[in-house]
Design goal:
This protein has 312 residues and is α+β, with helices and mostly antiparallel strands. Helix content is 34%, strand content 31%. The strands form 3 sheets. The chain has an 11-stranded mixed sheet with strand order 2-5-6-8-17-9-14-13-12-11-10. Helix 3 packs across helix 4. It is elongated.
């Protein structure tokens, strides 16, 4: 039997300590990261205890009669430690479903942590989704990922672009000029998609102050002016590109090619994977071919980010 407890702020230290020693958690599940936008979501995260010991966590929020893997996070299924077993995870899902029914929920939307972020194998939850919940896939987005131990060859066009940028005086390096890059990012998203970044400049600065080693900015500059860059999220196994952007001048000089030439060939990340993120629209059904073409040109190959759903 599990004791299921809804997360409250007084449990933040216990929550964070479990995330830090879990087998599939990342810093995105630390409450100092999760709670920066707590005003936007009705948090309904759950903590599972077995024999008085914290056994697992579920970052989640409530939307009417639906429990959702936290909408403010790219992924966020059950967070487990090395003691988790398949049978106990099945039991946990049985008891969680009953608990949620009693709380008035009718549906669950669940986003498991992609396997590249696991420190050790951690897919007991996926088996429980199949064997206990009869869950079905509702969203599958395709990310482009490089296994840094077995990198693929670059497309010739990407090599040409990197050479062009460097030949025209583009300077690549790590930066703390978040405002300079945010100007490029906001302008580009507005012009191309009529959109804004998920994070405001103030939010990204706050999160970087809290996680300076896990969140890093690299930029491409021409005559000391930022014309492109990327924000990297570093977990224990993955270097993930949270944002990539270049302005019109940066695109002219092919600075993104030079930027990733530097990141992939000059930096020793001591991680297994370099992940460029997804290239999809409409719940994963539409592949944005120009976007994934660029990522595949750097050697990225497919990893799925999935969403599941079941009724209670």
């Amino acid at each position: 039997m599990f004791e299921i407890v809804r997360y409250t702020a007084d449990k933040a230290t216990e929550w964070n300590q479990f995330v830090a020693q879990s087998k599939n958690g990342t810093f995105l599940f630390d409450r100092q990261y999760m709670d920066y936008h707590s005003d936007r979501f009705a948090d309904y995260s759950l903590m599972f205890y077995r024999q008085g010991r914290l056994y697992a966590l579920l970052p989640a929020n409530q939307e009417g009669d639906t429990l959702c893997s936290h909408r403010g996070l790219t992924y966020g299924g059950l967070i487990m430690d090395g003691n988790s077993t398949a049978a106990r995870t099945q039991q946990l899902f049985r008891e969680m479903n009953e608990y949620l029914r009693q709380e008035g929920f009718r549906r669950v939307i669940y986003k498991p942590v992609p396997h590249i972020f696991h420190q050790i194998p951690s897919e007991e939850d996926l088996y429980a989704l199949f064997s206990i919940c009869d869950a079905h896939l509702i969203d599958r987005s395709l990310s482009s990922t490089i296994d840094l131990a077995k990198p693929q060859k670059w497309h010739r066009d990407r090599k040409y672009g990197a050479h062009k940028a460097l030949a025209n005086g583009i300077v690549i390096g790590e930066s703390d000029d978040w405002a300079g890059f945010w100007d490029v990012l906001e302008y580009n998203l507005k012009a191309k998609y009529d959109a804004r970044p998920v994070h405001t400049l103030e939010e990204i600065r706050l999160l970087h102050e809290r996680f300076p080693q896990q969140m890093r900015l690299f930029t491409a500059s021409k005559d000391s002016k930022i014309v492109g860059g990327t924000v990297l999220y570093l977990t224990s196994t993955v270097v993930h590109t949270q944002y990539i952007s270049a302005d019109a001048e940066g695109k002219q000089w092919r600075v993104i090619d030079a930027l990733f030439d530097y990141l992939l060939h000059e930096c020793d990340w001591q991680r297994r994977y370099f992940d460029f993120g997804t290239s999809n629209e409409e719940d994963g059904k539409i592949l944005v071919e120009p976007l994934i073409y660029q990522k595949e040109g750097f050697g990225g190959r497919g990893i799925c980010y999935d969403w599941y759903e079941w009724t209670l």
